[in-house]
Design brief:
Blueprint lengths: L1 H29 L1 H19 L17 H4 L8 H8 L3 H32 L3 H12 L6 H12 L5 H8 L14 H25 L4 H9 L4 H26 L6 H7 L5 H4 L2 H11 L3 H29 L6
Helix pairs in contact: 4-15, 5-9, 5-11, 6-9, 9-11, 10-11, 11-15, 14-15
Amino acid sequence: MQAKVQTQTKPILRGAVRASLKALTTELRKNYMLYIMVLPGILYFLIFRYGPMYGAIIAFKDYHIQEGILGSPWANPWYKHFKTIFESTYFFNILTNTILISIYKLVFGLPAAIIMALLLNEARITWFKRTIQTVTYLPHFLSWVVVYGIAQAVLSPSGGLVNKALVALGMNPVDFIASPQWFRTVIVASDIWKDIGWGAIIFLAALTGISPHLYEAAAVDGASRLQRIWYVTIPGIMPVVVLVALLNIGNLLNAGFEQIFIFYSPSVYSVGDIIDTWVYRQGIVGFQYSVAAAVGLFKGVVGFILIFGTNWLSKKYTGSGIW
């Protein structure tokens, strides 16, 4: 009986496979130009995102450059390098710094981009709107080296504009960039200044999807401009806000290596040293490649858990998520 069922099932499976292949072939022929356009993006992720995952196995090996990934011996015990990380006297301090800086950027940066998008959307003078939008998103294309130079010109204790104003008011100059009390503020403020315009583009695009009839209906009901923003605009872009917030939460352990590396100094390690800069010093400069790979794997697992967890909570309480 069982053999008879298997005999009957095989032709059905083969038929289903043929139908699927035929449908796939038809789809590729019909929209081949679209798939060719997508191909560079797919290749990018395969080569630069998924390909390097093979090297993650050195987190479980005593890696030596001369012996290569396959030739290096396995670590004994297998969690040896993870133990090194968690037993480090600096790890929980840098983990705290990483999380705090990322949260500050999210808590202050996301609302700033939303407010900028709302202000630009409400502007009625076209040339003014375009000028402000251009001026605000141009810093996104500046390197952090240039941004650091601008920050030095503004915040330098000897000749910075801010400190000149403080001295004129009878106050003592402050070395903002090298001060543990001010370093995180400088990092978050410079990040917002650099990316506020670029982030606003996402929400401006979301605003175009809101039906004008909703605004007309609200105006007929006597809603003021602020009420229309509160009851029509903000709910209309909320799915996009949730999406952006979820993606940022998934990158909670990526506080911005390039920015921190350029801005920080030994005087602010206690508040500015993050996981990526610590890995750079220990893993790259100190040749502890296996430890660096272990930290990267740890970050990936935490990010995976965060993005799945926050997506589940978002779908449960708001009805929208990434998928």
